[in-house]
Amino acid sequence: MKIGRIYILIMLGILAATFASCRQEICYDHYPAMDIRFSWELEWERDYGMNHIANWNPAANSYAYDELRPSTPEWVKMIRYFDDGRRTERFFNQEGARFEVEQGQGCSILFYNGDTEYIILSDIASLNDVRASATTRTRSGPALQALQEMYQHSRTTNPPDVIYSAYVEDVPGVMSHEVHYLPVKMQPLVYTYIVMFEFEHGFENVVLARGALGGMAEGVYLRTGVTTDETSIILFDCDILPDGCRSQVRSFGIPGFPDSYFGRASGVSGGPFTLNLEVKLSNGRNVDFNFDITDQMKKQPRGGIIRIKGLRIEDEVSKPPVGSSGFQVDVSDWGDHTEEIDLPITTFETK
């Protein structure tokens, strides 16, 4: 009898352990679920004939190629669009997750990262119209006013944050006892231009530098990856180097561009595109350069290198004003222009 009781207790323990360990599997067996896993395409530029990655020169370009790749975001937002007009939202970490869904309801799904500061999302309710735009940035001075006259109806904006997107069409409904595995490739919709201004004379007198890039796309549609037809003027600051200045300028790319990396044929058109450089000298003067870079942008519609060579600031421009022993620039005075010197628009080829 004692042996029989021990046997019964052992069997009960085994059954209890089996029941506890299988509860999760039983749950998944009875309820429909999706298992979403993200992969990330960490590209900072798209190759449309320049072949930057194969011909990269870290010394000439100031960066290693991989150093420019964007990082993965902290979290991803999923919006499911149903045929009856409903939509639901869910948030994931950068890896993805497994979760329960309604039984038998097909949908289309849009994914994008939401941890951005300089991005405005609009028209979320309409799948075809969801788009990202850059936030507005203002700047005073004749240099920008001249650029705005060239690009009327264009907003002045910050460089946008990197935003990723993926769209999955016609996801079938999941039935009971099913798990639908869904791999999702997240692709960037914002790219980087390395902008370099190289001086052959007079740069030692420059104390501050900033730029503007006119004619760029104001936004991008998240479902298709196509940039909007509206243009913007991207305002950016420059780093001062020994022989010039440089900046990493993020952009959606050129307007109305159907990105072939999102499965659509691309033909480069549009323009003109203008690059502005404004420098403040130690004597308090501002010098303004403008460059027509249309040919360069058509070869690099989504990220790349823009290098301007042979710039000069002549000695008579750098001299202290008459009757003055010199002037030390105050950073807080950068928005107020004491003297503006306009140089003609010139076309420079990328080397």
Structure description:
It is built from five helices and 21 strands. It has helices spanning 2-30, 58-61, 142-150, 294-299, 315-318, and strands at residues 33-40, 75-81, 87-93, 96-100, 107-113, 119-122, 131-134, 155-157, 164-171, 179-188, 191-201, 206-217, 219-221, 231-237, 239-241, 244-251, 274-281, 286-292, 304-312, 340-342, 346-347. The strands form four sheets. A seven-stranded mixed beta sheet has the order 3-2-5-9-10-1-4, with no helix packed on it. The model is unreliable at 19-28, 325-332 and 336-351 (pLDDT under 50).
Helical content class? 10-25%
Beta-strand level of the residues, as a percent range? 35-45%
Strand ordering within the main sheet: 3-2-5-9-10-1-4
Unreliably modeled segments: 19-28, 325-332, 336-351
The gyration radius over C-alpha positions equals: 28 Å
Brief sketch in words of this structure:
The chain has 351 residues and is mostly beta strands. Helix content is 15%, strand content 39%.
Q: What order do the helices and strands come in, and which of them pair?
A:
Elements: H1 2-30, E1 33-40, H2 58-61, E2 75-81, E3 87-93, E4 96-100, E5 107-113, E6 119-122, E7 131-134, H3 142-150, E8 155-157, E9 164-171, E10 179-188, E11 191-201, E12 206-217, E13 219-221, E14 231-237, E15 239-241, E16 244-251, E17 274-281, E18 286-292, H4 294-299, E19 304-312, H5 315-318, E20 340-342, E21 346-347
Parallel strand pairs: 1-10, 8-14, 11-19, 18-20, 18-21
Antiparallel strand pairs: 1-4, 2-3, 2-5, 5-9, 6-7, 7-13, 9-10, 11-16, 12-14, 12-17, 15-16, 17-18
